[in-house]
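Sequence dictates fold. Next comes a concrete instance:
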Amino acid sequence: MTDEKAMTVRKESALDVYGEGDDIKKLASRIRLCLPGGERLNDGQALSLAQIAVAYNLNPFNGEVWYIPGSGTMVGIKGLRKAARSQSPYWSEHVLLTQQERADLGIPDDRPIIAYLGLLADYQGTPHLLRAAHHLRERGTPFHLLVMGFPSVEHYRRMARGLGVEDCVTFTGKVPYEEAPAHLALGDIAVAPKLSTTEGAGKILNYMAMELPTVAFDTPISREYLGALGTYAAPVGDAEALARALAGLLEMPQGERQDLGRRLRQRASRDFSWEESGDRLLDIYRTVINKWSMARPSACGGPWGDA
């Protein structure tokens, strides 16, 4: 929703503007008749859904807005996408950290930065990442590891000390999500060392959005996100393999790394945007609804009947 539209709605409430006019009542009747599950709504619930639909220009027949008994009227994914279209592209604009803020974090200017953002835990591959840092140091590869996340920061800081890499690792602790882009922008490359072969890895999409070439263990989830543009370490859990993959990206000419980062962002925008993900989810909803609902097309004509 644009700011102008939002201000209009706040100034004149939906109830004041639309009331229980004939157009709202007709829509409420069509909702009860045509919407899958609509027959379970009472008159007040159907009317409430109709009022919100008209007030915010949302279509209740295609998932933009729903009425959920016990919860009330809920804007669906497709409705949220309308608002998303009016916003700037995902993480395309952010305020960079100042040179002083960078210095306060202990980020050097003379070495490439490996960025990690996420939970710190053994199953996330945090120990493997620190061991990979140890191997990178042994092979003489210049780098600095920026580890953003929590919990157990002190535990992993002690582990870094024991591995002899404390001076080339910065632990920031918890980073507020809205500040994540500015911190990720410090990175030259990113790393996703999660060990699970089935659990999602949303951090990879954040890396892609920030144009960061990314190293990950070779799992189906990593390949789903990164495709042929990923840099993979195998076998899963091998810290030396992770170090070799990181070194490969760090030693890549800067221009090639930047081009790879741009292509990763394009892939994220094309294949994993809110709109694309919403469409996929809506397809699932439609399949389930169509399977269990009885169609009554003769009663569902008109502009609000288009699914």
Q: What stands out?
A: The CA atoms of residues 53 and 59 lie 6 Å apart.
